[in-house]
Automatic annotation (TrEMBL):
Keywords assigned: Aminopeptidase, Hydrolase, Metal-binding, Metalloprotease, Protease, Zinc
Gene this protein is translated from: pepN
Protein role: Aminopeptidase N is involved in the degradation of intracellular peptides generated by protein breakdown during normal growth as well as in response to nutrient starvation.
Gene3D superfamilies in the cross-refs: 2.60.40.1840, 3.30.2010.30, Neutral Protease Domain 2 (1.10.390.10), Peptidase M1, alanyl aminopeptidase, C-terminal domain (1.25.50.10), tricorn interacting facor f3 domain (2.60.40.1730)
Protein name: Aminopeptidase N
Domain called Peptidase M1 alanyl aminopeptidase Ig-like fold: residue spans: 450-548
Occurrences of domain Aminopeptidase N-like N-terminal (ranges): 25-192
Organism: Porticoccus litoralis
Catalytic activity: Release of an N-terminal amino acid, Xaa-|-Yaa- from a peptide, amide or arylamide. Xaa is preferably Ala, but may be most amino acids including Pro (slow action). When a terminal hydrophobic residue is followed by a prolyl residue, the two may be released as an intact Xaa-Pro dipeptide
Domain Peptidase M1 membrane alanine aminopeptidase: 232-445
Homology family: Belongs to the peptidase M1 family.
């Protein structure tokens, strides 16, 4: 067992830094075996601190200290001590220069935090606390410094040397090495520091800002990926224009660089002027990347770009404020994606993700508020709650204020706090000031975990022509808080009748935002001449679980008549959910399953529409996922959920066979196009093909096979491969095997495509899933050190293959625990993240609960567990 168990760090214990670092000069020399880091820090006592002592405490992890000096005088061993992750210097003056030299080992750094080697390049990842693996420092976001960085490395091995800001000077040494000095004029915390050294190819473009400044845009990738940069570059330029137009934010340096690396713990990182990206979030080409992959690249490139203002120019005071930058920036990138494509499609995708992933997190043992009150390891808090729920909270502010006031609020926020490290309260204060609204109650969204329940009933009084909505809100207890205060919930509503939406005010508006603040609250609409069906929470105006006693007929009605596109989709989902839940009960009771014809009719109607956006049509025709049903279940019955969803797909496939075939054919194009309309067509086409397969139509195998063989793009190819691999018919096996082999042979030199090959097999629902995954773990293309590979195989199997991972024998749980234990020794951040599915054990039947707990306990008992994995395992048991 570890000797000292890590404890929680509390927001209430926040103290301003005792010392400041005005200037940071680094010289990083990268050698064959290791690297040395020479740091010169210009420091002074913080006038805002009431600390009176003389000692200075710095962060440092896995650093081999070579020398340490204050004002040029080397310190003796008696003048400092190293305790775990702290360097304590007993006596420092009020103003001084601290010089240190440390040795670090990037080649042995498998945590991918700090300075590490990925394939042919050296690069860094410092957020949240990786800088302390590079040098001794005050590694906290409220210490902001002016950085000058010199990188030294072999000229042949690392022709490209990069860091933040502008290139200031460079030269060659006579031993085959060369150097480059970068200077970043903007003050920044250490988590935004970056350095890259490697053999990289460059794609260049430029952008002229609204004030007429030219910015050089540079994308650094491996030579073989040079053809896959166009989409990221276009997305970057679109994001730059958009931020000028929508938020009035202009880029501030003369240079914007993006570097693509293959081994990366997350999607991407917004380091000032030098973003570092997971290759999966920047490279895109129709032959290797699906349409969803293209959208993801656009969103992540924009997200990191938007951080330049929401994150870098105005940063976080401490890590409890993480959502200040992440929630706001996710909101900004979602607005951007909505503007670039279809707003309703984007909203549906986001809400689907929120309802499955974030709602599940919010009801489990790791539930935490958007502004957490405590944490053990901050890396564990890069969660759907901080990001996606955080974004929903900002969206609610936007809904309450309206776009103009919201924009005035962000203007004031950026103006007041430019160059500062601030809090969520500062952000909300700017919004309160421009709107003269009271946000006291609204802050509960930031401070309470858990998903609020909003129950609504209605009654109609024809005599008085009154329609009343009765709201009742509550929120279940979560680990940090048992008793919840009521929330301030913006509920966007419309009243729908067969002849359309009723006007709700004198201006004829048909949507109104109600503000629900009480535990029980009634809202009365006057002058309502016929009984309407309420359309509630339009656009998903608040992240709550809404219930209203809709009949199936009312849901079908809303599906066809609601003027709100999101709610039309949502009505369809609720209709399917009601039917599926009833069938789950039938399945458990052994009652034969029968599909309600109303769903078939509703689907037929949607398929017959000719004027709807095809991407929307495809979304409406997609049944809620197994994981959404699981999230909604009292106790998750794995078999029942899986069998019921399969049954419905099969019946819908069979009953509407001819329509699916016609839709498939009508949306098949000879020539590939990347336009929004073409993407929409492909999604409807591939969905239709999947239903043909589900309905086991005779021609579906050959259609699928032909599409696989002839596809000229990855969306169609992968969709056909997925179909073949999941087709339960005997005659599909040889075709599926052949296709997998061919796919591998064709794409074995493309790591990103192989990720998709692993994902397809890891998600295969046919029996024997675990054995297939275990065989693939031994495949030469699998690499336990590469997070994308781990996520593609282990992650997808454990998070997206409900029926196989939760096989009753519990072998899936054992497999996951074994891998988490092994991963924890290499990469704690990835290990602790992979543990998530086991933390949900309380949601399953007693047999599975016991098996899952046992494996969690085994992980927790592992000696020398990282703080990351320890926190998740201990909090879940
Ligand atoms: N700030 C990065 C972003 O744009 C993500 C950093 C994630 N860090 C981590 N330790 N997981 O969202
Ligand atoms: Zn971010």
């Amino acid at each position: 067992m570890r000797d000292a168990q890590p404890g929680n760090i509390y927001l209430k214990d926040y103290e301003v830094p005792r010392f400041l670092i005005d200037k940071t000069e680094l010289r990083v020399e990268i050698g064959d075996k290791d690297a040395t880091v020479l740091a010169n820090l210009t420091m002074r006592r913080n006038p805002a601190s009431n600390y009176q002592g003389k000692s200075l405490s710095l962060h440092g992890v896995q650093l081999e200290l070579q020398q340490l000096a204050v004002d040029g005088r080397a310190l003796s061993k008696a003048e400092y001590e190293v305790n775990g992750e702290e360097l304590l210097i007993h006596r420092v003056p009020d103003n001084f220069t601290l010089t240190s030299e440390v040795l670090i080992r990037p080649r042995e750094n498998t945590s991918l935090e700090g300075l590490f080697k990925s394939r042919t390049m050296y690069c860094t990842q410092c957020e949240a606390q990786g800088f302390r693996k590079i040098t001794y420092y005050l590694d906290r976001p409220d210490v902001m410094s002016e950085f000058t960085t010199t990188v030294v490395a072999s000229k042949s091995e690392c022709p490209v040397l990069l860091s933040n800001g502008n290139l200031h000077d460079w030269g060659a040494l006579d031993d085959g090495r060369h150097w480059a000095t970068w200077h970043d004029p903007f003050l920044k915390p250490a988590y935004l520091f970056a350095l890259v050294a490697g053999d990289l190819s460059l794609v260049e473009d430029s952008f002229t800002t609204c004030s007429g400044r030219d910015v050089a845009l540079k994308l650094y990738v491996e030579e073989k990926d040079i053809e896959k940069c166009g989409h990221a570059m276009d997305s970057l330029k679109n994001a730059m224009v958009w931020d000028e137009e929508v938020y009035g934010r202009e880029y501030d340096l003369d240079l914007y660089m993006i570097v693509a690396v293959d081994d990366f713990n997350m999607g991407a990182m917004e380091n000032k002027g030098l973003n570092i990206f997971n290759t999966s979030c920047v490279l895109a080409h129709p032959s290797t990347t699906t349409d969803d992959g293209f959208k993801r690249v656009e969103a992540v490139v924009a997200h990191e770009y938007f951080h330049n203002w929401s994150g870098n120019r105005v940063t976080c005071r401490d890590w409890f404020q993480l959502s200040l930058k992440e929630g706001f920036t996710v909101f900004r990138d979602s607005q951007f994606s909505a503007d670039m494509g279809s707003a309703t499609v984007k909203r549906v995708e986001d809400v689907n993700m929120l309802r499955t992933v974030q709602f599940a997190e919010d009801s489990g043992p790791t539930a935490h508020p958007v502004q957490p009150a405590y944490y053990m390891e901050i890396s564990n808090f890069y969660t759907a709650t901080i990001y996606e729920k955080g974004s929903e909270v900002v969206r609610m502010i936007h809904t309450l204020l309206g776009p103009e006031l919201f924009r005035r609020g962000t203007d004031i926020y950026f103006e007041r706090h430019d160059g500062q490290a601030v809090t969520i309260e500062d952000f909300v204060a700017a919004m309160a000031d421009v709107s003269e609204r009271d946000f006291t109650q609204f802050m509960n969204w930031y401070r309470q975990a858990g998903t609020p329940r909003l129950s609504v009933t209605s009654d109609y009084d024809p005599q008085q022509q009154q329609f009343s909505l009765h709201f009742s809100q509550s929120c279940p207890p979560t680990p940090e808080c048992q008793e919840k205060q009521p929330y301030h919930i913006p509920v966007s509503v419309g009243l729908v009748t067969p002849s359309g939406d009723l006007p709700l005010d004198a201006k004829g508006n048909t949507t109104q935002v109600l503000e629900i603040t009480q535990p029980e609250q009634t809202v009365v609409f006057e002058g309502i001449t016929e009984a309407p069906v309420p359309s509630l929470l339009r656009g998903f105006s608040a992240p709550v679980k809404l219930s209203y006693p809709y009949t199936l007929d009312q849901l079908s009605f809303l599906m066809g008549h609601d003027s709100d596109g999101f709610n039309r989709w949502n009505a369809g989902q609720q209709l399917s959910i009601q039917l599926m839940q009833a069938l789950v009960t039938d399945y458990r009771e052994g009652t034969p399953l029968v599909l309600d014809q109303r769903l078939v009719e509703a689907f037929a109607k949607v398929l017959a529409e000719t004027d709807t956006d095809k991407a929307m049509q495809a979304l409406v025709l997609m049944l809620p996922s197994e994981y959404l049903l699981a999230e909604l279940a009292e106790v998750i019955d794995v078999e029942a959920i899986h069998q019921v969803r399969r049954f419905m797909c099969r019946e819908l496939g069979r009953e509407l066979r001819d329509t699916w075939r016609a839709t498939y054919l009508a949306n098949s194009e000879k020539v590939f196009e990347m336009s929004g309309a073409a993407v929409a067509k492909r999604s409807l086409k591939n969905l239709s093909l999947r239903y043909l397969l589900n309905g086991a139509s005779d021609d579906s195998l050959s259609l699928m096979h032909t599409q696989f063989m002839e596809a000229d793009n990855m969306t169609d190819r992968l969709s056909a491969l997925n179909g073949l691999v999941n087709d339960p018919r005997e005659e599909a096996r040889p075709l599926s095997e052949q296709a997998l082999d061919k796919f591998y042979n064709d794409w074995q030199h493309e790591p990103l495509v192989l990720n998709q090959w692993f994902q397809t097999q890891a998600a295969c629902v046919l029996p024997g899933g675990l054995e297939r995954v275990k065989v693939l773990m031994e495949h030469p293309a699998f690499d336990f050190h590469n997070p994308n590979k781990v996520r593609s195989l282990i992650g997808v199997f454990c998070n997206s293959n409900l029926i196989n991972f939760h096989d009753e024998a519990g072998e899936g749980y054992r497999f996951l625990a074994d891998n988490v234990i092994a991963l924890d020794k290499l990469n704690p951040q990835i290990a602790s993240r992979q543990l998530t599915p086991l933390t949900k054990w309380r949601r399953y039947d007693l047999t599975r609960q016991a098996l899952m707990r046992e494996e969690l306990a085994r992980v927790l008992a592992e000696p020398g567990l990282s703080r990351d994995t320890y926190e998740i395992a201990s909090k879940s048991l």
